[in-house]
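To whoever is on call:

I kicked off a structure prediction for a single chain this morning and the downstream step that reads the tokens threw a length-mismatch warning. I double-checked the sequence; it's 303 residues and nothing unusual in it as far as I can see. Pasting both halves so you can look.
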Amino acid sequence: MTRLPLALVCLCAALPPAQAQQEPGGDWLRELSLDLVNEARTEEGLSELTLDDALVSAAQGHAQNMLAEDFYAHVAPDGETPRDRILDAGGNPWALTGENIARCVGCETPPDAERVEAFQDGWMDSPEHRENILSPGFESYGFALASGDGKTYAVQTFAGPGSATGDGLSDNAAEDFALETVNEARTADGLAPLESSQPLSQAARQALESRLEEGALPQDLFTLLPVDAEGWTTLSLRSASLGGSGSAVTEEDIESIVESWRSGATEAPFGGPAATHFGFATSVQGSGRLSAVAAFGGRDQSR
């Protein structure tokens, strides 16, 4: 079967689940699947998931595509990934996402409650699929079925803010660990270590607020410094955002941010030889987005 043009596929994926093609009884089978998932999560002391239109749409589109194109994989023949499908359907770009798929060949169609329960049992018996179902970082859920020619495809989709991998850090602890990590990188580059600076941390905090509210860092950097801060000769900023980070900043998050500055820099990523001091600020949004700004400053040591 010829694949539909991408624009048409995206348009279909954006439709609410009630308008998308689905199996007869798809709504109540979806509710059954949600109940089975939430029963498993409740047994593990986890919060229940809720149905999400974007996740349902992404699941329905992939189930139908696998049936129509006769393939069985998370990545479609055109390279489309589970995350691509969720974002195309209007999902949160900062969320942690996951997908489970299953197929039954030679099963009776259309699928019924017994088939949905069998798919759920199979996923729970598979460590990787079970991990998605029982992830504490997921809050939302989608499910869809597509059947024909003696085959039934099932897709589960998941999304949420993620969960912290490690102990959450206070603002001061996050700044201390960021300074330690940056200084390790500077030492490896043959540069002198930096010292912590409260004025630079205040500048980083103001720059972070500007980035979150206006989508960009300020252009006039020296206006970010406190009015009584004197002796600064150079000032530069670095910013980064991570998705699926949960509700706390961890050491792993900071290591990822610092590494992104190193790998993505076209010039000195940590202030260069002129920098003498360091400031740092972070913010975690409920969507799973973690944002950070570092300020690197050079100070006239005679002052």
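Update from on-call: the warning came from a stale cache, not from the record. Cleared it. Sanity check on the structure: The two ends are 75 Å apart (CA to CA).
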